Amino acid sequence: MAAESTGSELPERESMEFDVVIVGAGPSGLSAAIRLKQINPDLTVVVLEKGSEVGAHILSGAVIDPIGLDKLLPEWRSEDTPIKTPVTADHFLYLGPAGSIRLPNFLMPPLMNNHGNYIVSLGNVCRWLASKAEALGVEIYPGFAAAEVLYDDAGNVIGVATGDMGIGKSGEPNANYTRGMALLGKYVLIGEGARGSLAKQLIARFKLDADREPQKFGIGLKELWVVDPARHKPGLVQHSFGWPLDAKTGGGSFLYHLEDNQVAVGFVLHLNYQNPWLSPFEEFQRFKTHPAIRDTFEGGKRVAYGARAITEGGWQSVPKLTFPGGALIGCSAGFVNVPRIKGSHNAILSGMLAAEKLAAALAAGRANDEVTEIETEWRDGLIGKDLKRVRNVKPLWSKFGTALGVGLGGLDMWTNSLFGFSLFGTLKHGKPDNQTLKPAAECAKIVYPRPDGKLTFDRLSSVFLSSTNHEEDQPAHLKVADLAREKSIELDVYGGPSNRYCPAGVYEWVEKDGQPTFVINAQNCVHCKTCDIKDPAQNITWTVPEGAGGPNYPNM
Question: Does residue 489 register a pLDDT over 90?
Fold first, then answer.
């Protein structure tokens, strides 16, 4: 079995062999690992996590539907877990520039009801799941970024390799150089989250997106606050849409009241927006100043910040899950339910489904082949049922704008819930998000107010709160294929939107010797992947930095 072909200038990789190699210690990867060991304790299972610890790169709202946990760990409610705050109230607001309208709950489709759900830190849930996995004998390696897919001579996936450590900015090994390790498996599961670098390669290599709609994305920005106890309402879930976005720009927002006087506030902006002068980060800061929102934070303190891309394509855009030697799971496959702003339940279910099918294949003596049962069965199960009912919400919103699109989406969810069909059939998404910007000259510039440092903030102070860190002496993990192309398209046509769509201040166009120069502050990167998605030239590729690099979210 050929794990790789190495050049003579590099030492050969050390390797370890397992039954199943899992990339990503998120809900899907950890659930797959747990389920594999539940079925057969003798299986050898390893989970690679690029963050410094499990949960360090996990960012989500999060209100979780416990359907997945109930199936994976039926006794969890009787244990000490980080799942402590049941939803007690569910509010839906439409925001105007100066006021708001609360939508009656009885008008909302039943699937939008959060009764029985829980407000959590998904990072802490993953830490708890990791302890469960390790107790079953799963090996978890945090700080190890899977940088390369390994294939045998027939083109089947046989494992992954972690990135080399100790490569200097020049691209040459330094005194601390260590060759990455090959982790070989009879099967490999990819659970990197939205727009993962290995999933992107596998989708292209095996044409997993053939005959699918383009994947659609949003960017989710989140802050965690500790608020005045008098303003804290444990269990309150408040979703809103409308202002500060215009009628043609899709997005929404949330306030989730957790335990210990904590409030998670978040803003999701669909990445098919058109105006290149728009800044998702600045829109998030503006949102907090709305009269229906700002009072919650009076006298409070912001303690954490982060951002992450979210898959929004749903039913139509899920790629083929299986390839020779493995499968995509969780947000690598795109299982987020957009109107519910939930994906962790489907991530857990997808990890379980993949684990059950791989365990059966291994028991039958199979290895490194395509376990097609994962692909052929997911649409008929709980994940498929969840996504099919909401499949037209995103395209209706994109086509008709916020007011009419949301109304039609609600009607479509009602007919799907009551009668099991849609008046619209299955709508298409249209263009990928990198093709939706209008030229800068055709759009009005947006002037954003200066932050006050109390309720609204700048990007650099926000990145500081994310505890983002990258080893300085390493090549930039954000790769620009052609700087001349970036200038002629990204700057000259679209006005340099990377300076605005990035929520961490990574990209700048600066004057140097009288010429515009593209500056990449890679050390600021919070690994949201927005640049890889939204760059109109499709000239920027996000890759993994050295292991443990990136944000260090304590409880997001």
Answer: yes
Cis peptide before 309 (omega within 30 of 0): no
Instruction: Give the other-Cβ count within 10 Å of 395's Cβ.
Output: 24
Mapped onto helix, strand or coil, the DSSP state of residue 183 is: strand
Residue 148 in contact with residue 126, Cβ under 8 Å?
no
Quick: pLDDT tens for 204-226: 999 999 999 999 999 999 999 99
Go through the chain and tell me how many residues it has.
Answer: 556
Two tokens, residue 1: 């079995």
Handedness of CA 525, 526, 529, 534 (dihedral sign): negative
Please give the structure tokens belonging to residue 436.
């939706």
User: Under a CB-based contact definition with an 8 Å cutoff, are residues 404 and 332 in contact?
Assistant: no
Question: CA-CA distance, 272 to 519, in Å (whole number)?
Answer: 25
Task: Please choose, from the candidates 275, 217, 224, the residue with its C-alpha nearest in 3D space to the C-alpha of residue 246.
Answer: 275
pLDDT bucket at 170, cuts 50 / 70 / 90: confident
- The answer, yes or no, to whether residue 187 has pLDDT greater than 70, is yes
**What's the rounded Cα separation, in Å, for the pair 167 and 144?**
15
Tokens of residue 518, six digits: 């593209």
Read off the DSSP letter of residue 146: E
State how beta strands 173-178 and 251-257 pair.
unpaired
- One-letter amino acid for residue 262 of the chain: Q
Q: How many domains does the chain have?
A: 1
Q: State if pTM tops 0.85.
A: yes
State pLDDT tens for residues 388-400.
999 999 999 999 9
> What's the CA gap between 403 and 97, in Å, rounded?
15
Give the Cα separation of 400 and 384 in Å (integer): 25
Average pLDDT over residues 178-196: 97
Is 43 contained in some domain?
A: yes
Contact 350, 330 (CB under 8 A): yes
77, part of any domain: no
Q: What CATH number is given to the structural domain containing 373? A: 3.50.50.60
Residue 397 lies in a domain: no
Going by C-beta distance under 8 Å and a sequence separation of 6 or more, which residues neighbour residue 6? 12, 13
CA–CA distances in Å: residue 238 to residues 99, 112, 214, 296, 382: 15, 12, 30, 12, 26
If you average pLDDT over residues 319-346, what whole number do you get? 97
Which domain, by its residues, includes 329? 15-68+124-214+317-388
Dist CA 227 CA 25 (whole Å): 31
Task: List the Cα angle 80/81/85 in 5-degree steps.
Answer: 110
Asked whether residue 409 is assigned to any structural domain, the reply reads no
pLDDT tens digits along 269-304: 999 999 999 999 999 999 999 999 999 999 999 999
The answer to whether the CB of 196 falls within 8 A of the CB of 332 is yes
User: For 249, what's the count of Cα atoms within 13 Å in the CB-facing half-sphere?
Assistant: 22
First-residue to last-residue Cα distance in the chain: 41
- Cβ atoms of 194 and 310 closer than 8 Å: yes
Percent of the chain at pLDDT above 90?
Answer: 93
* 63 half-sphere exposure, CB direction, 13 A CA radius: 31
pLDDT tens column, 401-420: 998 999 999 999 999 999 99
Average pLDDT, the chain: 95
